[in-house]
Design a protein that fits this description.
This protein is α/β, with parallel strands linked by helices. Helices cover about 45% and strands about 15% of the residues. Helix 9 links the parallel strand 10 and strand 11. It is globular, with a radius of gyration of 21 Å.
């Protein structure tokens, strides 16, 4: 299906694609914009306002955010006097980060509205989160289409808004940097993740515990690419492991991450609370078998037919067993790596995502007409 080139207003309330701090959210926002532009559309990031509510009882922050959003809407609307966009596209709208900019403008000017990775949680209806989540739910209800990266998010949207129009849209990366054949180094385990409190720190805790359970005599070393405010706590978790087996690389640019993954034998990341995890897709594109927990959104991208091994959440012994099997069977690990690369290209590559997104937007505009 084709559609004329559109003027698309893009807004990411949690983190602008221009935000200075790298994260999976920023990366996905940038990739979505690249997909839209690849299809020939003209994309404008209409606001850098960060609508983030870290706790449910900060009413002062909530009031200030609402006032800032109103000022942003006025500023944007004045800029549209010469012509309005054809579509407003919102990325990652949820109870901690509601869309107070794009959705109200869409309603005020009768512009088609789309969301991507919107979500709803029955467990977060308290304080200002309840009010913010109701705003997010209204956006989902009004949207011409809501794109969900995971089955869990899609089910949550349908549960909260049965009439919501939802389509699945697989998470994706640019697989180009991973095109060269892998050159795995024996015993080389790789992990790539930011070091921050919460789920990331918990995954590091389980990662360290699983390595402590590896059988004596196992040939292994771990390279960790990542940094952040919890680095001291992360390093303390690994204090009981031989220092010579640990390679702390800090935050690396994308080209160096790709080179690191190419040298790995396997990718190990428990994935506590992960929505899906772009790092898993990068590892697969590089040809690494992945070992992780079967938890949260991880099974959306890691599976046996994609060269992955999933174990029960919280079972560090099972993680260690899976790692040991792969390290002692490099031929079998290589076979899984081939499957991983094929799956990344077929399901999660930039060209595949761009074509899919183009068709979905064309459908929205055809329905409007």
């Amino acid at each position: 299906m084709s559609v004329r080139h559109l003027r698309i207003a893009f807004y990411a309330p949690l983190k602008s694609p221009d935000h200075p701090v790298p994260s999976g959210d920023r990366q996905m926002a940038r990739m979505l914009i690249a997909c839209l532009e690849r299809a020939g559309h003209r994309v404008e990031v209409i606001s850098a306002l960060r609508a983030y509510l870290p706790v449910p009882d900060d009413t002062g922050r909530w009031a200030l955010l609402q006032a800032d959003a109103e000022a942003e809407r006025d500023r944007i609307a004045k800029g549209w006097r010469g012509g309005m966009p054809d579509l407003i596209f919102c990325y990652h709208d949820y109870y901690k980060s509601p869309d107070l900019v794009g959705h109200p403008l869409a309603r005020a000017f009768a512009i088609p509205y789309m969301t991507c990775e919107a979500s709803y949680s029955d467990r977060r209806n308290k304080g200002i989160w309840a009010e913010a989540q109701d705003i997010a739910r209204q956006g989902v209800r009004d949207a011409a289409l809501n794109l969900s990266f995971t089955a869990r998010d899609a089910a949550g949207l349908h549960g909260a808004v049965p009439e919501a129009r939802v389509a699945r849209f697989a998470p994706f990366i640019d697989t180009t940097p991973f095109g060269a054949p892998p050159e795995p180094e024996p015993g080389h385990i790789v992990a790539v993740a930011m070091m921050r409190p919460g789920d990331k720190l918990e995954s590091y805790r389980h990662l360290a515990a699983s390595l402590q359970r590896l059988p004596s005599g196992t040939d292994w070393r771990l390279s960790i690419a990542g940094d952040g405010p919890a680095r001291g706590e992360v390093e303390a978790l690994f204090a009981g492991l031989p220092a010579e087996r640990l390679n702390w690389l800090g935050a690396l640019p994308p080209t160096e991450v790709a080179a690191l993954l190419k040298r790995g034998s396997l990718f190990l990341w428990p994935g506590c609370g992960e929505a899906y995890g772009l790092a898993y897709l990068e590892a697969q594109a590089a040809g690494l078998p992945v070992v992780a927990y079967c938890v949260a959104g991880v099974p959306e991208v890691v599976s046996e037919d994609a060269g992955g091994t999933l174990v029960a959440a919280g079972d560090t012994e099972a993680l260690a067993d899976a790692v040991a099997r792969l390290l002692t069977d490099p031929v079998g690990a290589a076979r899984l790596g081939v499957k991983a690369r094929a799956a990344a290209q077929a399901r999660h590559s930039f060209p595949a995502a761009s074509a899919r997104l183009g068709d979905l937007i064309a459908g929205v505009m055809e329905a409007k007409r």
